[in-house]
Write a structure and sequence with these properties.
Layout lengths: L2 H20 L5 H17 L27 E4 L2 E4 L33 E5 L13 E4 H6 L3 E8 L6 H5 L15 E10 H8 L7 E6 L5 E2 L2 E2 L7 E2 H4 L4 E6 L2 E2 L9 E3 L12 E7 L6 H4 L3 E2 L9 E2 L6 E4 L5 E3 L5 E8 L5 E7 L4 E3 L1 E2 L8 E8 L5 E11 L24 E5 L1
Parallel strand pairs: 3-14, 18-25
Antiparallel strand pairs: 1-2, 3-4, 5-6, 6-11, 7-10, 7-14, 8-9, 11-12, 11-13, 15-16, 17-19, 19-23, 20-21, 20-24, 22-23, 24-25
Helix pairs in contact: 1-2
Length: about 425
């Protein structure tokens, strides 16, 4: 994490902590924790911003699976899909090349001792965090299961292009377009577990919390990663997944159980879920107040919401790929949107926009494969572009709207190739 980003996070964290301390609904235990955090902030004032304290030292220390350089690119403690690794692949992204986004590092959790703990006044009897409703791994797997293809995407996917294409740099992990993937997830609908736990009609928010180490940024300990969902979304299509592409969840992708929230930014799909709070009043955390909100020009003072993913398109080509001049080739790619299936895709190879051919079997899924034929007319540098429109009419502008934290990039990406 850059100093600029850490400094920004620290300022936002101060605002969040101060707001929580003023909230009469915050418990004594929470106030003690807030006081500790505020003290740490006071001690840190006047010093240089610090990088993520919870990140282990070394090369990609927080990721368990091997990072094959032909499949994944290490990126600030994360790993980005190389799009050329999807050429010729099927609909889903194989686990070995599925991107990894960690706030700290991948924990190693024993499924035998793992428990899912639900608590809060939105459940019958108001179970507390210290005396929750519990499900162990075997009990969860014994509940009726469903399997569905769903897309998970980091909210910052495409952030690199704010600087490289729009001359509006923003801090944060500089993803190109590889912070995304579709997998077949198998698990139990969150709605099933909530009803077994005694969901009441008064519940309004549900907040899953991860078991990865607490996130420390800018000298502030924000606790474990957690972000609330409205109960309507939680009861709709959210999954507590324990399998990914036909095998138990790999450690980096949430073993033993993770949340999968179709269509919403990746921070909503909490990995290594351990606790879920269910409340009759709105819930808040740094991940929906100071982070993962839309700050900047044209946005409300407290930030605009960042929930549904934007529309994007990617070529299944290396960056600055080399093609043969005068030889026709098939260009392939994928487009996706959090608001609904893709309706149409267009490609521009330098002579104007034309429709791409959609792969018929993919219609209606979380992303759409497409192809088009192109013959580079001469040697030299060329720029490829692709854009899509989903069934709701949302599309991709030439330039994405800028926001301070670089979320939800949706601009048309200019993909360079060289014909030789």
């Amino acid at each position: 994490m850059s100093y600029d980003e850490a400094d920004h996070d620290a300022r936002r964290a101060r605002q969040w902590l101060a707001g929580q301390a003023r909230d009469p609904g915050v418990s004594r235990t929470e106030l003690i924790a807030l006081g500790t955090a505020m003290s740490a902030l006071a001690a840190a004032d006047g010093r240089e911003p610090v990088a993520l304290a919870a990140e282990p030292v070394g090369v990609d220390p927080g990721i368990v699976k091997p990072l094959d350089p032909e499949l994944l690119t290490p990126l600030d403690g994360n790993a980005e899909l190389r799009w050329e690794a999807m050429a010729g692949q099927g609909y889903v992204v194989p686990n070995d090349r599925f991107f990894v986004r960690n706030h700290t590092h991948t924990p190693r959790i024993d499924a035998g001792t793992w428990r899912l703990r639900l608590y809060g006044d939105g459940l019958r009897g108001g179970p507390t965090r210290d005396a929750p409703v519990e499900f162990d791994y075997a009990t969860l797997r014994a509940l009726p299961a469903v399997e569905l293809p769903a897309l998970v995407e980091c909210a910052g996917n495409g952030r690199h292009f704010f600087a490289s294409q729009q001359d509006t740099p923003v801090s944060g992990v500089q993803w190109r377009l590889g912070g995304v993937g579709v997998a077949r997830w198998r698990g139990v609908p969150l709605a099933t577990v909530l009803r077994h736990a005694g969901l009441t009609a008064d519940a309004v928010d549900v907040m899953p919390e991860g078991l990865d180490p607490p996130y420390v940024t800018g000298g502030v300990d924000l606790g474990r990663v957690r972000r609330p969902l409205p109960v309507g979304k939680a009861l709709d299509d959210v999954l507590l997944a324990y399998e990914m592409n036909g095998v138990p969840l790999p450690a980096d992708h949430g073993f033993p159980v993770r949340v999968v929230v179709p269509g919403w930014i990746g921070i909503s799909s909490i990995k290594w879920v351990g606790a879920i709070e269910v409340s009759t009043t709105p819930l808040f955390s740094p991940w929906n107040t100071s982070l993962y909100r839309m700050f900047g020009p044209g946005q409300p003072a407290d930030g605009g919401p960042a929930d549904t993913q934007s529309v994007k398109s990617a070529f299944e080509l290396p960056w600055d790929a080399r093609l043969t001049a005068g030889v026709e080739t098939t260009l392939t790619g994928r487009s996706w949107s959090g608001a609904g299936p893709i309706d149409r895709v267009e490609v521009d190879t330098g002579d104007g926009w034309r429709p791409a051919t959609l792969v018929g079997a993919d219609r209606g899924g979380p992303w759409q494969r497409w192809s088009t034929r192109w013959c580079p007319p001469a040697a030299g540098r060329w720029t490829l572009r692709a854009r899509a429109v989903d069934v709701t009419g949302r599309g991709q502008p030439d330039r994405a709207g800028v926001n301070d934290l670089g979320y939800l990039f949706d601009g048309v990406v200019r993909h360079p190739v060289t014909a030789v």
